[in-house]
Design goal:
single chain, alpha/beta, Rossmann fold, about 20% strand, PIG-L deacetylase family protein, LmbE-like_dom_sf, EC 3.5.1.-, hydrolase activity
Length: about 240
Amino acid sequence: MRQLPEDWQRGLVIAAHPDDIEYGAAAAVARWTGQGKDIGYLLVTSGEAGMAGVPPAQAGPLREREERAAAAEVGVRAVEFLGYPDGRIEESLALRRDLAAAIRRHRPELVVLMHFGPVWAPGYPNSADHRATGRAALDAVADAGNEWIFPELAELPPWTARWAAVFEPGGDHAVDVTEVIPQAHASLAAHRRYLEVLAPERPVDEQVAEIVEQGTGPRADFPAARAVGFTLYHFRD
């Protein structure tokens, strides 16, 4: 397992829902902002359908506030929401266009995506929103550099990122996050109301410790006590 490249300055993290990034990738973000890198977050939905018993009109604004607070804990100031319907994301040309536009606006060298495979582990399916968002976003990284695919974006100059890094189990690259675990905990804990609804029988701090441990555990053949794994895709040198 190799070290993820860090000779870059601007990054953009794309996810389907508030809290997705905080399940492990936020630890890497904390490391990078600590190096002085400029990172932005782009959420396809506001997570409004993710809280049992809380109507979407209330849950959406709440989850946006929690995501902004979570981002601030790891040094991220720019948080954008595209407003797609939670639970009903489609891998569409419209989504690719909106993601490509965002990539052109942010002009990242590294785009970070969440795992979009069919399962997280045997017997644990990945959500439809995660699958659709990840596939569309990986295509959008290429779309953003092509002036002809979405001519309606002509006012935004084409931009090709150097890499896309997908946060997922068993990736081929990793980042040492040993020194930033406290920031990762604080970032996930900012989703307090969401976690209270998700598992009301368990204290939030207990949930946070378990989730961050799962997402930042030691990796085979990578010399770090705590690490985050990614699969790296190359788009330009």
